[in-house]
Amino acid sequence: MFKKTAARVLAAGVVAAALVATSAVAASAATPAGTAGPFYLIDSADGTAIAPGTTIDWEFDVSGNPTESNEAFDQVFTGPSDATGVIPFITTRGTELTPGSYSAKAFGDFSDPVAKTVLMSPAKLSSFTEGMLGANGVRAAGGEYSLGFAFVKDNGVSVASDAVYFTYISVTAGTGAWTFETPSGTDPEPEPGENEFEIDLNATTMNAPQGDLSLIAPASTTATIGSPTLVDGLSTSTGKLGQFTVSDERYQSHEGWTLTTSVTDFTKSDDPTKVIQATQLAIAPEFVGTPNANVTLAAAHAASSAPAGVLFAQSNNTEAAGDVTLDAGLTFVAPGSMPAGTYTSKMTVTLASK
Protein backbone atom coordinates (compact mmCIF):
# COMPACT_ATOMS: atom_id res chain seq x y z
CA MET A 1 0.00 0.00 0.00
CA PHE A 2 0.99 3.64 -0.32
CA LYS A 3 0.85 4.41 3.38
CA LYS A 4 4.21 5.55 4.83
CA THR A 5 5.45 4.56 8.30
CA ALA A 6 6.92 6.78 11.01
CA ALA A 7 10.33 5.18 10.49
CA ARG A 8 10.80 7.31 7.40
CA VAL A 9 11.11 10.46 9.53
CA LEU A 10 14.32 9.11 11.07
CA ALA A 11 15.88 8.85 7.62
CA ALA A 12 15.35 12.51 6.77
CA GLY A 13 18.86 13.58 7.74
CA VAL A 14 20.42 10.90 5.56
CA VAL A 15 18.51 11.60 2.36
CA ALA A 16 18.46 15.40 2.54
CA ALA A 17 21.76 15.59 0.68
CA ALA A 18 20.11 14.09 -2.36
CA LEU A 19 18.19 17.32 -2.98
CA VAL A 20 20.23 19.97 -4.78
CA ALA A 21 18.64 23.41 -4.96
CA THR A 22 18.84 25.00 -8.39
CA SER A 23 16.75 28.10 -7.79
CA ALA A 24 18.37 29.86 -10.73
CA VAL A 25 16.24 27.64 -13.03
CA ALA A 26 12.70 27.79 -11.63
CA ALA A 27 10.26 25.03 -12.56
CA SER A 28 7.20 26.12 -14.47
CA ALA A 29 3.84 26.10 -12.69
CA ALA A 30 1.15 24.39 -14.71
CA THR A 31 -1.27 21.49 -14.50
CA PRO A 32 -0.71 19.31 -17.59
CA ALA A 33 -3.68 18.82 -19.90
CA GLY A 34 -5.40 15.50 -19.19
CA THR A 35 -4.63 15.15 -15.49
CA ALA A 36 -7.68 14.80 -13.24
CA GLY A 37 -6.07 17.20 -10.76
CA PRO A 38 -2.76 18.53 -9.42
CA PHE A 39 0.04 16.03 -8.70
CA TYR A 40 2.46 17.69 -6.27
CA LEU A 41 5.77 16.12 -5.19
CA ILE A 42 6.56 15.83 -1.49
CA ASP A 43 9.34 14.32 0.63
CA SER A 44 8.18 10.78 1.51
CA ALA A 45 9.93 10.95 4.89
CA ASP A 46 8.18 13.96 6.39
CA GLY A 47 5.53 15.04 3.87
CA THR A 48 7.11 18.45 3.24
CA ALA A 49 6.86 20.11 -0.15
CA ILE A 50 9.63 19.72 -2.72
CA ALA A 51 10.59 23.24 -3.76
CA PRO A 52 10.16 24.30 -7.40
CA GLY A 53 13.44 24.32 -9.28
CA THR A 54 14.81 21.35 -7.37
CA THR A 55 16.90 18.70 -9.14
CA ILE A 56 16.05 15.32 -7.60
CA ASP A 57 18.45 12.38 -7.33
CA TRP A 58 17.40 9.13 -9.05
CA GLU A 59 17.26 7.26 -5.72
CA PHE A 60 15.61 9.96 -3.62
CA ASP A 61 12.26 8.87 -2.13
CA VAL A 62 9.50 11.28 -3.09
CA SER A 63 5.73 10.80 -3.35
CA GLY A 64 2.85 12.32 -5.28
CA ASN A 65 0.24 14.27 -3.33
CA PRO A 66 -2.96 16.21 -4.18
CA THR A 67 -1.77 19.25 -2.15
CA GLU A 68 1.57 21.02 -1.83
CA SER A 69 2.52 19.23 1.41
CA ASN A 70 1.24 16.42 3.62
CA GLU A 71 3.07 16.59 6.92
CA ALA A 72 0.08 15.05 8.75
CA PHE A 73 -0.02 12.18 6.22
CA ASP A 74 -3.78 12.64 5.81
CA GLN A 75 -4.18 14.02 2.28
CA VAL A 76 -5.43 11.45 -0.25
CA PHE A 77 -6.44 11.09 -3.87
CA THR A 78 -9.97 9.66 -4.21
CA GLY A 79 -10.76 7.36 -7.13
CA PRO A 80 -13.99 6.87 -9.10
CA SER A 81 -16.53 4.18 -8.21
CA ASP A 82 -15.49 1.90 -11.09
CA ALA A 83 -11.81 1.80 -10.06
CA THR A 84 -10.50 -1.63 -9.02
CA GLY A 85 -6.79 -0.88 -8.75
CA VAL A 86 -3.93 1.62 -8.99
CA ILE A 87 -0.90 1.78 -11.30
CA PRO A 88 1.91 4.33 -10.67
CA PHE A 89 3.62 5.14 -13.95
CA ILE A 90 6.36 6.93 -15.87
CA THR A 91 5.28 7.28 -19.47
CA THR A 92 5.76 9.19 -22.68
CA ARG A 93 3.67 12.35 -22.59
CA GLY A 94 0.28 11.82 -24.17
CA THR A 95 0.00 8.11 -23.24
CA GLU A 96 -1.22 8.60 -19.66
CA LEU A 97 -4.59 6.96 -20.44
CA THR A 98 -3.02 3.83 -21.99
CA PRO A 99 -1.65 1.47 -19.29
CA GLY A 100 -0.28 -0.92 -21.90
CA SER A 101 2.02 1.83 -23.19
CA TYR A 102 3.52 2.91 -19.87
CA SER A 103 7.31 3.19 -20.06
CA ALA A 104 7.72 2.12 -16.43
CA LYS A 105 5.42 1.01 -13.62
CA ALA A 106 5.69 0.71 -9.85
CA PHE A 107 3.63 -1.27 -7.33
CA GLY A 108 0.48 0.57 -6.29
CA ASP A 109 -2.61 -0.10 -4.22
CA PHE A 110 -5.46 1.65 -2.40
CA SER A 111 -4.74 3.00 1.05
CA ASP A 112 -8.44 2.38 1.75
CA PRO A 113 -10.00 -0.14 -0.69
CA VAL A 114 -13.55 0.77 0.37
CA ALA A 115 -13.13 4.54 -0.06
CA LYS A 116 -10.81 3.91 -3.05
CA THR A 117 -8.23 6.40 -1.85
CA VAL A 118 -4.48 6.69 -2.49
CA LEU A 119 -2.12 8.08 0.15
CA MET A 120 1.25 9.33 -1.15
CA SER A 121 1.60 7.82 -4.60
CA PRO A 122 5.14 6.38 -5.21
CA ALA A 123 7.34 8.77 -7.19
CA LYS A 124 10.85 7.45 -6.48
CA LEU A 125 11.95 6.82 -10.06
CA SER A 126 14.16 3.83 -9.30
CA SER A 127 11.11 1.97 -7.91
CA PHE A 128 9.38 1.84 -11.32
CA THR A 129 10.84 -1.54 -12.26
CA GLU A 130 8.07 -2.83 -14.57
CA GLY A 131 6.74 -1.57 -17.91
CA MET A 132 8.01 -1.31 -21.47
CA LEU A 133 11.37 0.18 -20.46
CA GLY A 134 11.43 -0.12 -16.70
CA ALA A 135 13.36 2.25 -14.47
CA ASN A 136 16.76 1.38 -15.94
CA GLY A 137 15.52 1.99 -19.48
CA VAL A 138 14.11 5.39 -18.55
CA ARG A 139 17.36 6.34 -16.81
CA ALA A 140 19.49 5.29 -19.76
CA ALA A 141 17.32 7.04 -22.35
CA GLY A 142 16.46 10.17 -20.38
CA GLY A 143 13.95 12.60 -21.87
CA GLU A 144 10.55 14.13 -21.24
CA TYR A 145 7.96 12.02 -19.38
CA SER A 146 4.78 12.12 -17.33
CA LEU A 147 5.05 10.90 -13.73
CA GLY A 148 1.94 9.93 -11.78
CA PHE A 149 -0.60 7.17 -11.33
CA ALA A 150 -3.87 5.89 -12.78
CA PHE A 151 -6.99 4.49 -11.16
CA VAL A 152 -7.60 1.39 -13.28
CA LYS A 153 -10.22 -1.28 -13.97
CA ASP A 154 -10.47 -4.46 -16.11
CA ASN A 155 -7.42 -6.00 -14.38
CA GLY A 156 -5.34 -2.93 -15.08
CA VAL A 157 -6.03 -2.83 -18.80
CA SER A 158 -8.17 0.34 -18.77
CA VAL A 159 -8.17 3.63 -16.87
CA ALA A 160 -11.28 4.04 -14.71
CA SER A 161 -13.29 7.11 -15.73
CA ASP A 162 -10.15 8.73 -17.23
CA ALA A 163 -8.89 9.24 -13.66
CA VAL A 164 -5.14 9.84 -13.98
CA TYR A 165 -3.04 12.22 -11.89
CA PHE A 166 0.38 13.25 -13.13
CA THR A 167 2.95 15.99 -13.66
CA TYR A 168 5.67 16.45 -16.26
CA ILE A 169 9.29 15.49 -15.51
CA SER A 170 12.60 15.78 -17.39
CA VAL A 171 15.16 12.99 -16.83
CA THR A 172 18.90 13.37 -17.50
CA ALA A 173 20.18 10.37 -19.49
CA GLY A 174 22.75 8.31 -17.60
CA THR A 175 22.64 9.95 -14.15
CA GLY A 176 18.86 9.83 -13.87
CA ALA A 177 18.76 13.22 -12.11
CA TRP A 178 15.41 14.82 -12.83
CA THR A 179 13.34 17.96 -12.52
CA PHE A 180 9.58 18.44 -12.46
CA GLU A 181 6.84 20.95 -13.15
CA THR A 182 5.09 22.10 -9.99
CA PRO A 183 1.34 22.23 -10.66
CA SER A 184 -0.54 25.45 -10.08
CA GLY A 185 -3.88 23.71 -9.58
CA THR A 186 -5.38 25.35 -12.66
CA ASP A 187 -4.43 25.47 -16.29
CA PRO A 188 -2.71 28.73 -17.26
CA GLU A 189 -4.29 31.04 -19.81
CA PRO A 190 -2.68 30.32 -23.17
CA GLU A 191 -0.66 33.08 -24.76
CA PRO A 192 -1.71 34.19 -28.27
CA GLY A 193 0.24 32.24 -30.89
CA GLU A 194 1.99 33.60 -33.92
CA ASN A 195 -1.04 33.10 -36.16
CA GLU A 196 -3.79 34.31 -33.85
CA PHE A 197 -4.88 37.53 -32.22
CA GLU A 198 -7.08 38.68 -29.36
CA ILE A 199 -9.80 41.31 -29.54
CA ASP A 200 -12.04 42.71 -26.82
CA LEU A 201 -15.76 42.45 -27.52
CA ASN A 202 -18.31 45.07 -26.39
CA ALA A 203 -21.94 44.00 -26.79
CA THR A 204 -24.80 46.50 -26.49
CA THR A 205 -28.25 45.32 -25.40
CA MET A 206 -31.70 46.90 -25.17
CA ASN A 207 -34.78 46.34 -23.05
CA ALA A 208 -37.66 44.55 -24.75
CA PRO A 209 -40.67 46.85 -25.35
CA GLN A 210 -43.86 46.64 -23.31
CA GLY A 211 -46.31 46.13 -26.19
CA ASP A 212 -49.98 45.18 -26.36
CA LEU A 213 -52.16 42.10 -26.18
CA SER A 214 -54.37 41.81 -29.26
CA LEU A 215 -56.57 39.39 -31.19
CA ILE A 216 -56.50 39.24 -34.99
CA ALA A 217 -59.71 37.70 -36.39
CA PRO A 218 -59.91 35.18 -39.27
CA ALA A 219 -59.97 36.56 -42.81
CA SER A 220 -63.57 35.39 -43.28
CA THR A 221 -66.46 36.29 -40.98
CA THR A 222 -68.22 33.02 -41.79
CA ALA A 223 -67.14 29.46 -40.98
CA THR A 224 -68.84 26.73 -43.00
CA ILE A 225 -69.65 23.44 -41.30
CA GLY A 226 -70.74 21.22 -44.18
CA SER A 227 -70.32 17.96 -46.07
CA PRO A 228 -72.83 16.17 -43.81
CA THR A 229 -72.62 12.41 -43.47
CA LEU A 230 -74.59 9.91 -41.46
CA VAL A 231 -72.74 8.68 -38.38
CA ASP A 232 -74.70 6.24 -36.23
CA GLY A 233 -77.82 7.48 -37.98
CA LEU A 234 -77.22 11.16 -37.16
CA SER A 235 -76.29 13.95 -39.57
CA THR A 236 -72.65 14.92 -38.79
CA SER A 237 -71.06 17.96 -40.45
CA THR A 238 -67.46 19.18 -40.15
CA GLY A 239 -65.50 22.35 -40.87
CA LYS A 240 -62.83 24.76 -39.70
CA LEU A 241 -63.19 27.92 -37.65
CA GLY A 242 -60.50 29.75 -39.66
CA GLN A 243 -56.99 30.81 -38.71
CA PHE A 244 -56.65 33.67 -36.22
CA THR A 245 -53.78 35.11 -34.20
CA VAL A 246 -53.19 36.09 -30.59
CA SER A 247 -50.40 38.68 -30.39
CA ASP A 248 -48.77 39.19 -26.99
CA GLU A 249 -45.96 41.76 -27.04
CA ARG A 250 -45.95 42.52 -23.33
CA TYR A 251 -42.29 41.59 -22.99
CA GLN A 252 -41.88 43.26 -19.62
CA SER A 253 -45.02 42.42 -17.61
CA HIS A 254 -45.56 38.77 -18.72
CA GLU A 255 -49.15 38.67 -17.50
CA GLY A 256 -50.37 35.75 -19.59
CA TRP A 257 -53.80 35.44 -21.23
CA THR A 258 -56.90 33.26 -21.63
CA LEU A 259 -58.95 32.66 -24.77
CA THR A 260 -62.57 31.54 -24.42
CA THR A 261 -65.48 30.79 -26.74
CA SER A 262 -69.25 31.03 -26.45
CA VAL A 263 -71.78 29.83 -29.03
CA THR A 264 -75.48 30.66 -29.51
CA ASP A 265 -78.07 28.03 -30.38
CA PHE A 266 -78.45 27.03 -34.05
CA THR A 267 -81.65 28.23 -35.81
CA LYS A 268 -82.96 26.84 -39.13
CA SER A 269 -82.53 29.58 -41.71
CA ASP A 270 -85.99 29.12 -43.27
CA ASP A 271 -87.91 28.21 -40.08
CA PRO A 272 -86.90 30.07 -36.88
CA THR A 273 -88.99 27.67 -34.82
CA LYS A 274 -86.52 24.86 -35.48
CA VAL A 275 -83.64 25.26 -32.97
CA ILE A 276 -80.68 22.98 -32.20
CA GLN A 277 -78.80 23.52 -28.95
CA ALA A 278 -75.28 24.99 -29.10
CA THR A 279 -73.99 21.97 -27.20
CA GLN A 280 -74.32 19.95 -30.42
CA LEU A 281 -71.18 21.73 -31.72
CA ALA A 282 -67.82 20.25 -30.71
CA ILE A 283 -64.72 22.47 -30.89
CA ALA A 284 -61.16 21.05 -31.11
CA PRO A 285 -58.53 23.83 -30.65
CA GLU A 286 -55.28 23.43 -32.61
CA PHE A 287 -52.04 25.22 -33.38
CA VAL A 288 -51.27 26.36 -36.90
CA GLY A 289 -47.62 25.50 -37.55
CA THR A 290 -45.21 24.82 -34.69
CA PRO A 291 -46.83 24.63 -31.23
CA ASN A 292 -45.92 27.45 -28.86
CA ALA A 293 -44.28 26.19 -25.67
CA ASN A 294 -45.83 29.02 -23.63
CA VAL A 295 -49.41 28.24 -24.73
CA THR A 296 -51.66 25.35 -23.67
CA LEU A 297 -54.70 24.34 -25.73
CA ALA A 298 -57.90 23.13 -24.09
CA ALA A 299 -59.09 19.63 -24.86
CA ALA A 300 -61.78 19.24 -27.53
CA HIS A 301 -65.05 20.33 -26.01
CA ALA A 302 -68.70 21.09 -26.76
CA ALA A 303 -69.41 24.79 -26.98
CA SER A 304 -71.65 26.54 -24.53
CA SER A 305 -73.58 29.79 -24.56
CA ALA A 306 -72.78 30.37 -20.89
CA PRO A 307 -71.62 33.98 -20.32
CA ALA A 308 -68.27 32.92 -18.86
CA GLY A 309 -67.42 31.03 -22.02
CA VAL A 310 -65.49 27.81 -22.50
CA LEU A 311 -61.70 27.78 -22.35
CA PHE A 312 -60.07 27.51 -25.78
CA ALA A 313 -56.41 28.18 -24.88
CA GLN A 314 -54.23 30.00 -22.37
CA SER A 315 -50.64 31.19 -22.01
CA ASN A 316 -48.42 31.06 -18.94
CA ASN A 317 -47.26 34.20 -17.18
CA THR A 318 -43.52 33.51 -17.22
CA GLU A 319 -42.81 35.23 -20.54
CA ALA A 320 -44.69 36.84 -23.41
CA ALA A 321 -45.98 34.29 -25.90
CA GLY A 322 -45.45 36.53 -28.95
CA ASP A 323 -47.64 35.77 -31.97
CA VAL A 324 -49.56 32.48 -31.80
CA THR A 325 -51.70 31.37 -34.76
CA LEU A 326 -54.62 29.09 -33.90
CA ASP A 327 -57.55 27.34 -35.53
CA ALA A 328 -60.20 24.82 -34.52
CA GLY A 329 -61.92 21.82 -35.98
CA LEU A 330 -65.71 22.07 -35.79
CA THR A 331 -68.10 19.10 -35.68
CA PHE A 332 -71.90 19.60 -35.65
CA VAL A 333 -74.18 16.67 -34.84
CA ALA A 334 -77.90 17.27 -35.52
CA PRO A 335 -80.53 15.42 -33.49
CA GLY A 336 -82.47 12.85 -35.53
CA SER A 337 -85.72 14.66 -34.84
CA MET A 338 -84.64 17.85 -36.62
CA PRO A 339 -85.33 18.36 -40.35
CA ALA A 340 -82.49 18.71 -42.83
CA GLY A 341 -81.46 22.18 -43.86
CA THR A 342 -79.08 25.05 -43.02
CA TYR A 343 -78.80 26.16 -39.41
CA THR A 344 -77.04 29.33 -38.29
CA SER A 345 -75.36 30.37 -35.05
CA LYS A 346 -72.75 32.80 -33.79
CA MET A 347 -69.49 32.05 -32.00
CA THR A 348 -67.78 34.70 -29.90
CA VAL A 349 -64.04 34.32 -29.24
CA THR A 350 -62.81 36.42 -26.29
CA LEU A 351 -59.21 37.20 -25.38
CA ALA A 352 -58.49 38.40 -21.82
CA SER A 353 -55.34 39.15 -19.84
CA LYS A 354 -54.78 37.08 -16.73
List keywords for this structure.
354 residues; mainly beta; 40% strand; WxL domain-containing protein; signal; Immunoglobulin-like; 2 domains; seven-stranded antiparallel β-sheet
Written overview of the protein:
This protein is mainly beta and 354 residues long. It folds into 2 domains: 174 residues, no CATH class; 144 residues, Sandwich (Immunoglobulin-like). Helix content is 5%, strand content 40%. The chain has 3 helices and 26 strands. It is elongated. The two termini are 68 Å apart. 29% of the residues are buried. The N terminus is likely disordered. This is WxL domain-containing protein. Keywords: Signal.
Write the layout of secondary structure elements.
Layout: H1 7-10, H2 12-15, E1 19-21, E2 40-43, E3 54-56, E4 62-65, E5 77-78, E6 85-92, E7 104-105, E8 117-118, E9 121-122, H3 134-141, E10 143-153, E11 158-171, E12 178-180, E13 210-216, E14 225-231, E15 234-240, E16 244-250, E17 257-263, E18 266-268, E19 271-276, E20 281-287, E21 295-297, E22 301-302, E23 310-315, E24 322-333, E25 343-344, E26 347-353
Antiparallel strand pairs: 1-3, 2-4, 4-9, 5-8, 6-7, 6-10, 10-11, 11-12, 13-16, 14-15, 15-24, 16-24, 17-23, 17-26, 18-19, 18-25, 20-22, 20-24, 21-23
Short description:
With 354 residues, the protein is mostly beta strands. The chain has two domains: 7-180, no CATH class; 210-353, Immunoglobulin-like. It has helices at residues 7-10, 12-15, 134-141, and strands at 19-21, 40-43, 54-56, 62-65, 77-78, 85-92, 104-105, 117-118, 121-122, 143-153, 158-171, 178-180, 210-216, 225-231, 234-240, 244-250, 257-263, 266-268, 271-276, 281-287, 295-297, 301-302, 310-315, 322-333, 343-344, 347-353.
